[in-house]
Structure formats: C-alpha cells, structure tokens
Specification:
Elements lengths: L3 H12 L1 H5 L1 E8 L7 E8 L9 E6 L2 E3 L2 H14 L7 E7 L5 E2 L10 E2 L2 H19 L17 H4 L14 H4 L20 H21 L8 H12 L3 H9 L1 E5 L4 E6 L2 E6 H15 L15 H11 L10 H17 L1 H8 L9
Parallel strand pairs: 3-5
Antiparallel strand pairs: 1-2, 2-5, 3-4, 6-7, 8-9, 9-10
Length: about 350
C-alpha cells in the first residue's frame, strides 16, 4: 500500500469492484507533538455502499491491527450523518511515533491502544463527518445490458415446459387508465370550486392572514433573496413540461422510482423522487419565514426527541441494545441544531434554547 492507485487496486482485488467504486479518500494529520502527532490517510464508503456489518482495515505504522474505540467512533459518525446508510467500509493507515502505540492490550497483540487516543479520534471523526456532509452524492445505479434474440423458426415452435400454463390476466390489469377519465389525472384530486365559493374563500384567506400576522409579527418581512429564487423558478418554468404534468394520465409505477404517465399519444417515465424533491423545495420557498409557530407549554428536549425517533426505527423497540449509540447520535445532532438556532428561528419559526429544547 504505497500509492493511492495501488491501495485502491488492492481493495478492488480483495473486496471487489463494487466496494472500490463506493469509496471516498480521507486525510488527517496533527504535527503538534504535545497533542497527538499523527498522520492518517485512507478511504471510507459513501452512501452508495451497502453492507450489514462494518469492515475496518486498520494499519498503524504499516502493521495490521484493530482498535475498537476508533471503529466504534467512526460508526457513531456514520449513524449520525447518514442515518439511512448501511454499515461502513473503512481503510485507514495511521503513522505515529512507535512509543505512542501500546501493543500489550491483548495476548495476540492484534488489539492496540494509542497515546492521546481521544484527541486522535476526535480529529478523525471531524474529518469523516465533513467529508460525508460535503460529498452529498446522489445514489448511483449500474446499467445492465440485456441481449435480445430475434425470434426465428428455431425458437418460435418450442413447446412450453411441462406443467406450466398461461395465467389469465384480469382486464383491469391489462388496460391502463382511460385518458378521457379525469380520475387518472394528478390535478383531478384538487377539489373544484364554484364561483360562489371563491368570494367566501377570499374573505377566509384575509381572516387567516390577519391571524397569522398576529401570531407571527415578522411574517410580513419577505426576504429579497427568497423572492429572487421564486422569480428564478417562475422565469425558468418549462411550459411543455408544465403542460405534461398538468394534463397527464397516471398509468402505474415502473419500479420503485419511475412512474409511467401518458400525455396525448406519448408515454413518459417520470422520476417521482426528483419530482417530489422539486415540489417540496418550491413549497418551502413559497412559505419561507411564513411558517406558523406553536408554543409548547413545556419545551421538548431535542435529545429525547431524537432518541425516540431512532427507537421508532428499531425492529425491536423494547431492546436496550445500542442505547449508548443512540444517545451519542442525539448529543451530536442536538449540538448541531443549537449552533443553527438563530437561522432556524428566523427562517422556519423553530425556536431552540440554550439547553437544547
């Protein structure tokens, strides 16, 4: 493991192409002999990597070893930064003075302890968290080519395997939604209003607006930057795509992400994930700094709320396993939200006090 290319080649040879393709390069160092005095470089997995357990290849002074505390600290960063990500793959090479390494932790000398371990862990955690946040890479999927064979006399006359029979498909599964039927159109789910209702709605909107202004006095102060973003959206609107989305007929889902929609005589594949993100982005922009605030009688501690959310995802909610990990994640995210308290209050009317509530 001398050069970066040879390291990646070695990882690709041992662990496979899919692992090597999902790695991010990391580096960290501290030249101060009074603190930690180390140099680290390696690779960590991004959000595309999928595995059920953590794989950590750790070299210290070119010797393959294990360090449970460092491994656990990196797992905490992944769980806090990429909650939905799988267990990480870590390759790490650390160089530090030999006298700073204690190999007498385990009889096999495989497990080691380091001088100033807390400082080293903190610096490595910070670098990994920064790289994971900055990368922000979209999930990628590999294409797979399918060879199609032309039908010929040799395969046209083949009999079906014995015991198999053609299953009759219900008619409603074969015919897609009728284009003339508005039930299949996305805008059909919005209630139609008569002219009599419009006058009432105008009065109701005025009343709601005055109530909101009493609740949030700062609501009327629109931000110029937000208005510029809204103007940019309106000016770059594609009339053709707008017409397709407004008048299309929903056919069905092609897979987990792509939906089939029909517009006139054309059939389109629509990325529901991208459409949803864009919709939510535009909704948030139009309501920016105009969100309603509800004051709780007793401020809710953020750390407890985060732990509750993490436990909600557990397959076994009663299990106390990984409680310390959940508390660490809650602590890290609470500190992050406290740092952004002023921004959250101004933009989203979410007030967070100094106690993290």
């Amino acid at each position: 493991f001398i050069a970066t290319s040879s390291r990646l080649d070695s990882i690709r040879t041992v662990y496979g192409v899919s692992v090597a393709r999902s790695l991010i390069k990391i580096e960290a160092s501290d030249g101060n002999p009074l603190s930690s005095n180390f140099k680290m470089e390696g690779f960590i997995s991004n959000s595309n990597y999928v595995a059920k357990k953590t794989t950590m290849v750790l070299f210290i002074n070119d010797r393959l070893v294990e360090c449970s505390a460092l491994k656990r600290a990196i797992e905490i960063v992944y769980a806090a930064t990429l909650p939905k990500a799988s267990k990480p793959f870590i390759y790490m090479s650390i160089v530090l003075p030999p006298e700073h390494v204690d190999v007498n932790v385990h009889p096999t000398k495989r497990e080691v302890s380091l001088l100033n371990l807390e400082v080293i862990i903190e610096k490595i955690q910070s670098v990994i968290e920064s790289r994971l946040r900055d990368s922000n890479e979209a999930r990628t999927f590999q294409e797979q080519t399918v060879e199609t064979s032309q039908p010929g006399p040799s395969n046209m006359g083949k009999d079906l395997p014995s015991g198999s029979k053609l299953q009759k498909i219900p008619v409603n599964k074969m015919v897609r939604t009728d284009a003339s039927d508005p039930a299949g159109r996305l805008h059909a789910y919005l209630p139609t209003k008569s002219l009599n209702h419009l006058a009432k709605d105008t009065n109701l909107t005025a009343v709601r607006s005055s109530v909101r202004q009493r609740r949030n006095p700062n609501e009327t102060a629109d931000l110029t930057s937000i208005q510029e973003l809204l103007d940019d959206i309106d000016s770059s609107c594609h009339s053709g795509l707008l017409d397709i989305l407004r008048n299309c007929t929903y056919v069905g889902m092609a897979d987990d992400v792509l939906a089939l929609v029909q517009h006139n005589t054309h059939l389109y594949l629509a990325n529901i994930v991208n459409l949803s993100k864009e919709l939510m982005y535009q909704q948030a922009l139009r309501r920016f700094s105009h969100f309603n605030a509800i004051q709780l009688s007793d401020p809710a501690p953020l750390s407890e709320l985060i732990v509750l959310a993490l436990k909600e995802e557990d397959l076994d909610p009663e299990s106390s396993e990984n409680d310390d990990l959940k508390e660490k994640i809650a602590e890290m995210n609470t500190e992050l939200l406290k740092q952004k308290a002023e921004l959250l209050e101004e933009y989203f009317c979410i007030k967070i006090d100094t106690h993290g509530s």
